[in-house]
Every structure is written in structure tokens, then in C-alpha cells.
Amino acid sequence: MPRVLLIEDDPSIREGVGLGLRRRGHEVRAAETGEEGLALMATFHPELVLLDLMLPGINGVQVCHRIRQTSEVPIIMLTARGDDFDIVIGLEAGADDYIVKPARTEVIEARIKAVLRRLSDPVGTRPGIETHGELAIDRAGLTVAKNGERVALAPSEIKLLLHLSASPEQVFSRQQLLEYVWDHSYHADARLVDACVRRLRHKIEDPARSPRYIQTVRGFGYRFGPL
């Protein structure tokens, strides 16, 4: 079972979630501050991070930014109900998904499996490298390069790009992308798609131009196809 780093300042949530995941076979290390969590990142080498947004000292968004500077480990945010603005900020900082607290352990476990499945179940995996303008997409190796330099992508970003680029010019609704990339079926999570697209564009697009690779279809969704 994957190693999980839990960064949560509420002791009851930290202990309850940690105990529930350990009973399911996970190795769990827990931290109550962002500073402690970042220190554990370097020694524990987790395969997934559960990160509370509202932390004392360095907050969850700042922790997410720092993790993304050196690691592509999947990150699931833990948020309080009603923190919609903070959820969007966290997603744009590089988180792959979010869970509203309080949540049952089985819900957290299901989200963990869904996030990790994106790494083990890439779309359209096959030998060879595809070239789309300045982008080179290696589906088998799950890597992307722009102008010969590798682009660091989080799990949700790589799966979204793989899915869109597998069917150039096909338009996908946000709901379709939610169901395929995130395994979510409810409309409220459309912001997951929009935040991921913004992060992906920042990494693969030329900021001086209009989006070239991931194009918005107003009122519906997105399509891939270099202009």
C-alpha cells in the first residue's frame, strides 16, 4: 500500500485519519504543521500527501507550492466545508484533488486510489513519442517535453493532457473530463478541470500567445490541437 504523509493540525482528524489508513495497510506519517510536513517529505518520501489547507505558520497553499518545486507526488487537499475560494487557490497551487472534512476513511481511501490510478492507468499508452508542435509526448514513459526540455507535470495534469491529445480536435465537456481523469461524477467539481487546465497551460503554452494546445470551447469544455 502506498506511503501517505498526512499534514493536519487538528489532532482528532490527524489521529482518526491516520488510524483508519493504517488499518487499511498504509504506512502513514503525520505532521501538525507545514514546516514539519516539509521536513518529513525529505526523509519519508511519501507516495501521496494529504494536506490540510488551514495550517498554522506556513499554510497549505504555501506547502503545496514548495512541494511542487521539487516533487510531482500526488497531493489531495483536506478542506473545511464552504472554503470554495481556498479550494480553487489550492488546486491552482498544484493539488490534484480535494476532500471536504469531515470525511469517512473509506471516502479518503477511494480518492487515494483514484489519484494513484492516474499514474498506473495512462490513456492510450503505446511505444513511441508523439510530436505536436513544440511538444513531445511520450505516452509509454508518461513524460512531456517542450522544445527538448522535460516539463514537470502532476498526475492530474499528465492524464488530462494524455486524454485530450489522444483525440485531437475532439471536444470534451468538463463533465466528461471529470469522469475520466478524476473519476468524479458530480458537477460541483468542474473547478478541478478549470484549475488543472490553467496549470497545464502555464507549463506548456507560450504565455505571449493565446492558448495554442488546449483550447476552450465556450460554454462546453476543451479540445486539444496545436494551432
TrEMBL record:
CDD domains: REC_OmpR, trans_reg_C. Pfam families: Response_reg, Trans_reg_C. InterPro entries: CheY-like_superfamily, OmpR/PhoB-type_DNA-bd, Sig_transdc_resp-reg_C-effctor, Sig_transdc_resp-reg_receiver, WalR-like, WH-like_DNA-bd_sf. Coiled coil: none annotated. Residues 127-226 bind DNA. Signal peptide: none annotated. Keywords: DNA-binding, Phosphoprotein, Transcription, Transcription regulation, Two-component regulatory system. Residues 127-226 form the OmpR/PhoB-type domain. PANTHER family: DNA-BINDING DUAL MASTER TRANSCRIPTIONAL REGULATOR RPAA (PTHR48111:SF21), REGULATOR OF RPOS (PTHR48111). This is Response regulator transcription factor. The modification 4-aspartylphosphate is found at residue 52. Residues 3-116 form the Response regulatory domain. Transmembrane segments: none annotated.
